[in-house]
Write a structure and sequence with these properties.
Layout lengths: L5 H15 L4 E6 L2 H5 L2 H14 L6 E6 L10 E5 L3 E4 L6 H10 L9 E3 L4 E3 L6 H4 L17 H6 L4 H9 L2 H11 L11 H10 L6 E6 L8 H8 L1 H15 L3 E6 L4 H16 L15 E6 L9 H8 L23 E5 H13 L1 H5 L9 E8 L5 E6 L4 H8 L9 E6 L5 E4 L9 H6 L8 E6 L4 H15 L5 H18 L5 H17 L3 H5 L2 H9 L1 H10 L13 E3 L9 H5 L5 E2 L7 E2 L9 H5 L5 E3 L1
Parallel strand pairs: 1-2, 7-8, 7-10, 8-9, 11-15
Antiparallel strand pairs: 1-3, 3-4, 5-6, 11-12, 13-14, 13-15, 16-19, 17-18
Amino acid sequence: MKLKNAEELRKLRESIKKESSKGKKLITVCSGTGCRAYGCEDLISAFKQEVEKSGLKNEVEVKATGCPGFCERGNIVVIYPEGIFYQRVKKSHVPDILKKTVVGKQLIDELLFLDEETGKKVTYEKDVPFYKKQMRLLLGANALIDPTKIEDYIALGGYSALGKVLSGMKPDEVIAEVKAAGLRGRGGAGFPTGMKWEITRKAKGDQKFVVVNADEGDPGAFMDRSLLEGNPHSILEGLMIGAYAIGASRGFVYVRNEYPLAVQNVIIATEEARKHGLLGKNILGSDFSFDIDIVRGAGAFVCGEETALMASIEGRRGVPRQRPPFPSDSGILGKPTNINNVETWANVPLIIEKGSGWYSKIGTKGSKGTKIFSLVGKINNTGLVEVPMGVTLSDIVFGIGGGIPKGKELKAIQIGGPSGGCIPKSQANVPIDYDELKKLGGMMGSGGLVVMDEDTCMVDVAKYFLEFLLEESCGKCTTCRDGIERMLEIVTRITEGKGTMEDIDTLNELAEVVRDASMCGLGQTSPNPVLSTLRYFKDEYMAHIKDKKCPGKVCKALITYTILDDKCTGCGACKQRCPQGAISGDKKKPHKIDPKKCIRCDVCYTTCKFHAIKKE
C-alpha cells in the first residue's frame, strides 16, 4: 500500500505492532555474512521445518535477522520474549531447542554463554558481557528485524523521523537540529555533518545529489556492511531526511560489489520503500520527491575517497581530483553533492526522532553519539561493538572483547584502517574521540580496530599496511605513488636485517613529504603506520637494525631455529614434516637443523610436542 501521509504511516505501524503482539514465541537467527559462513541458512530452514513438523506454526515464528555483532559466537539464536541467548547453535540442536526450551521452558546448558570472568553460564542476551557494556543505538535493531521486510522496520518506529520532517519541519530546521546534535562524519576525518549539509544547501545549482559512501575497503572492517545487510532502511531514511534538508532530488548508494548480501538487501529495501510511497514523487503526500540509485563499487580502496567515488558513479575511472572545488559546490555531473558514510546517515533518524538534546548528551564535548568498531585480531571476542564516544580502548579490548587469547599481553591497537595509527598499550586508557586519537598519531577512520599481542612485530605491521596502500594507490600523484613505494622498500630492508641507522631518518623525512604533498586522503594519511610505529616502537626498529633480531619472531630473515638436545626425544616428527629436508638425526637421538637449508616455515616449531625447538 502507498502511504499518503504521516498519519497513514502511524496507523500502519500500530496495525503491524498489534498483529505481532498475539503471543507468539519468536526465534531470531543471525543471517549476516559471518553467520552464513557458519551455515545459518540451513539452520533457519531446519527451524522452520521443525516448527511445521511439531505443529507449532501458530505459536512460534522464526525470523532471519541482521548481524547482532557477536561474530565470534555464531550461529547466534535468541528466543523472545525472554531473550534467551544461545550461541554456536547447529542444526542438530534445533529439535531440542523447540522441545525443551520453547515448549518445555528448560535451558540447554551447552548452548549458554560461559562468562570466563565469573565462571557462570549466562542465560539472557542482555546479561552477556559482550553486549552489556555497549550502547547499541544503531546495531540494536539488527537483531530484531528481518532486513527484507519493511514492516519490521516500521514496527520499531522506522520512517517516523521522515514523517516528522515532512509534516512539520523546514529544511533549515532539520540542518539546525543535526548541527545542534554535534554529529560528525563517521567515515574518516570527522567533519561536522550539519555544517556539510548547510554548505551544500547554500550552494547554487538546479539539481543536487546526496550519496551514501558504502565503499568500505579497510582490512578487518565490516561495520557498514553489517548495517546495510541488517538494517538498510535506517540508512535510506537518513538519506531521505538529508536530501530534504539539502534540497536534493536524487541519491546514490555506492556499495562495494564484494558485499553481495548488502547489495541485495539495499535493493530490496528501495523496492519496498517505493511500494509504500516512501520513495518517488510526493513522498507521504508532501512536495518532496526523491529517488535512489544503487551503484556497485569498482573494487578499489581509493574509491572510498569522495572525489574518486563520484568519478566512479559517473562511469569514469575512480581516481581523486584536486579540491577545490569541493563536492558541495561541484560534485556529480558538476552539481552540488553531499557525501556521508553509512553510519553517519543511520544516525540521522535517531537525532530527528529523539532530538538533538538527547543525542548531544552522549559522548564527549567534541565527539557526540556512539561509534561502531569492528573488533578483530588477537582478541577473545571478535565482532562488532557500538560504544559511546569517550570510552577507552582498554574498555573495548578488555571489558567487551574479553582480553587477549592464551594469556598474552596487549602490545598495540591499530585504529582507523590502513591509514590509521598503532596505539601502544601505554595509551590504551585515553578516551576515544576524534581529537584525542589525532594527538596520539591515530585517527577514528571508519572504525576498524585491530588488536595486536606481544608476538606482533610492529615493523612488519608497518610493512603490511604499506604494501596494502601501495597496491591501492591510484598512482595519480608522484608523492603518493613513489613515496609509499620508497617507504616500503626501506621498511622491507629493515625486516630483512639489511637496514641502517640512516634509514630511520630517511623514513621520517619521506613520511612527512608524502603526508604534506599528496593530493588525497589516501596519500596524506598513508605514512601513519610508519610514523606511529616509529613513535611508540622505535626500539623494535633498532633491534632489527642493530641486533639483527625480530623481537616478535615474525621477520623470517632474522629468525633462527635450533633443536635443544636435552629436550629432543628423537621422535622424528619434525624431520618427517620438514619440506626442505633441513633436519637430520637418528631415531631416539637428538636431531639437528641445517640453517642453510632451513626456509623458516615454522613447521618444525609447531609440530614438536616436546618444546624442543628454540625459535629466536
